[in-house]
Amino acid sequence: MRIAAFQMEARSVDPRLNLARIRTATEKAVASGAQLLITPELALQGYGAGDNLRT
Q1: Where are the domains of the chain?
Q2: Of 13, 23, 24, 51, which residue is the least packed, with the fewest Cβ within 10 Å?
Q3: DSSP run (H or E) holding 29
Q4: Cα–Cα–Cα angle for 23, 54, 48, nearest 5°?
Q5: CB atoms closer than 10 angstroms to residue 28
């Protein structure tokens, strides 16, 4: 199994941008033969989102 890792700085105020970046990284990983892409913890909402997180 080929595994790819994606390091990124997630923006806490822009989850759509974060998702778009992950989608692009996924496409590149698949094109390189990866079957699994590892992203950072909280890659969608970002660290320190505070009040930006909905409960």
Answers
A1: 3-52
A2: 51
A3: helix 15-31
A4: 70
A5: 13
Instruction: Give the C-alpha separation, 4 to 23, whole Å.
Output: 13
Helix, strand, coil percentages (3-state) for the chain, rounded to 5, are: 35, 10, 55
Q: What is the pTM of this model?
A: 0.79
- Chain length of the chain: 55
Which residues does 26 contact at the CB level (< 8 Å), separation at least 6? 37
Burial of 32 (0-12, 13-18, 19+ CB in 10 A): exposed
